[in-house]
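User: Can you predict the 3D structure for this chain?
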Amino acid sequence: MNEPFGRQLPRLLTPPPGPRSLALAARLRRVESRNITHIAADWPVFWEEASGANVRDADGNVYVDLTAGFGVATAGHAAPAVSAAIAEQAARLPHGLGDVHPSRVKVELLERLASLMPPGLEVTALGTTGADAVEIALKTALLATGRSGLIAFGNGYHGLTLGTLSVTDRRASSGPFADRLGPVAARARFPDGAAGDDSSASLAEVRRLFDAGSAASRAVGAVIVEPIQGRGGIVVPPADFLPALRALCDELGILLIVDEIYTGLGRTGRWLACEHWGVVPDIVTIGKALGGSLPISAAIGSARVMEAWPASTGEAIHTSTFLGNPTACAAALAQLGRIEDDELMPRAEALGARIESRVQQWVGSVAVVVRGRGIGLMRGVELRRPADESAGRDALVKRLLRRGILVLTEGPRGDVLAITPPLVITEAQLEHALDAIEEELAG
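Assistant: Here is the predicted structure, written as structure tokens:
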């Protein structure tokens, strides 16, 4: 029996990119900044429709999506409850006057977030993008501590705005704007637990950087960290790292900011990935999956820390036109409901265990596979690097595209195949995708 769109296996009508995608690429090339979309003879395909774990392109090709649209589609593409909430809210009140005359749905979202977070995280400032949420967290740290110094981690990714570039470790992105950035964060090494690396050296480096900041009259006010590095290569730290970092921040009197833009809201089987280690940060940032498809993010902190922001007298010192947009808030409420009511977090754990078992079979039997790593449905397969790294990783991703599998690579060298599908992906879709990956890696 044919499965409905959303639960289908790949079905290709023409080798991708097909003629309609190629025509759209030619049109896009003429009107979009050339820095945005990479266009080549065999890349990209143009999305036309999506549902569940399926994407259909402009040529009618159906793909299984292992990217979840950069992690947004946690509850699936076009999740019916989310789409219905968007349509209903858009018909009634699509936009409001967010920080002047707010909407009821904004209050409901803030209350819902407070109820889902670990005890102690209760006051929220909404944003639109992940970078916006990180900007809010960095501003909060400065207001709360009076210290501008920051410590981040190598290969960390927190956004590409001028403010977030100071804590993001991507020289290719920050280099052209170095004259505008000002002081950047001091960086410690992020420990790679999968390699048997312990936490002590990284923690010692954090302490050293704290002391160095004080000596240089740029006292450190906060540490920002991803509980699992996403763009850095799906890197899971040793089990003692986050608890020890939390204790060290408390000892030094600095704030701990945990960036859960990618890892949060069910992807690892918990609302927050840091819950796996029993850690409660002073501020957490969430985004991506929050809106289900619409841009909305949040920085959530303790009442004590968030009290550092002055009370509004009619002009907020951090706001935006779309702050608390009613349609985005309604989408977020529906998305959170689907993650909880459809029991997608236990599903992420169960399907993640299947991926882990499968990848473990590849280690030792598939020459290019080094190891697997990750938690829940945030998984990475580390690959041995070919002589031409760029050509090797691009060739694999493009071969999988031609088999109807949408997948991306992560890591500073692009040598980690990321498996981060919607949490609603069916077992048949997942196994088909893993079969295709195994065959391409073995071939």
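The radius of gyration is 22 Å. The chain has 14 helices and 15 strands.
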